[in-house]
């Protein structure tokens, strides 16, 4: 339990130890790619960590945007959290059914809203279940809790800011997609997108940051992975991916190694790959 940090990542042991804490809130933020054929809500209804609330990934987003699950307006985030009984003074632990996937995005979303008492469950629901820990199928009793939000605008970048950073080379843009997509050799899963990457960006597929059991590698191995990808850690970082989900795994890893000047390109490749007037690079970084 030495590496447990309630602001970034906690182990299943830590959660089992604290699960009865009155100010702990557990969120199931499972979300899957359409091809996975999994229904996160149905899976939550069938079994979840005791007391967990279901965080509806696609619903708690900005429905005015044409891009998938972009950041919701502050008011919507506050209203949804209040309805889930999550608010000021709570320690939040977020997990997903893949191990360590969509939960990182919700961790980052809370951070963006100025809430730092949130950690991702390392290894997620698969590890919790593999260890024979308790699950339940009942919905928790919800009591309203007020939430104050202070949006941290430096933690998110739009397409104009990313295009400027790519031109000035004053940030490291790190892409979490698989290498074949980054190089432009594999088709994008979303229709109508070009293949390739943002010029000047580096590729660090998010899977390279995880161990076989879906837990995050230790800080030394994380640092080595960023360096092996050619990332200059002295520059501020912008993380990107297909639609802003796995970019958050890179953000979590950066935070774990003590790097705090990082932001997510919320539109990610779903946006950049759509516009013909934005430059694209192919091949290696």
Break the fold down into its secondary structure elements and pairings.
Layout: E1 9-10, H1 12-18, E2 24-28, H2 40-46, E3 53-54, H3 74-83, E4 91-95, H4 103-112, E5 118-121, H5 124-130, E6 156-157, H6 159-168, E7 172-175, H7 179-182, E8 202-203, H8 219-228, E9 237-240, H9 247-256, E10 262-265, H10 268-272
Parallel strand pairs: 1-5, 2-3, 2-4, 4-5, 6-10, 7-8, 7-9, 9-10
Helix pairs in contact: 4-9
Number of helices: 10
Biggest sheet: strand arrangement: 1-5-4-2-3
Beta strands, count: 10
Q: Helix content range of the residues, please?
A: 25-40%
Choose one word for the global shape.
globular
Query: In sequence order, what are the helices and strands, one letter per element?
Result: EHEHEHEHEHEHEHEHEHEH
* Main sheet specs: 5 strands, parallel
Give the overall pLDDT as a whole number: 96
Question: What low-confidence regions span 5 or more consecutive residues with pLDDT below 50?
Answer: none
Task: Report, as a whole number of angstroms, the end-to-end distance.
Answer: 37 Å
Radius of gyration: 18 Å
Structural class: alpha/beta
Beta percentage is 5-15%
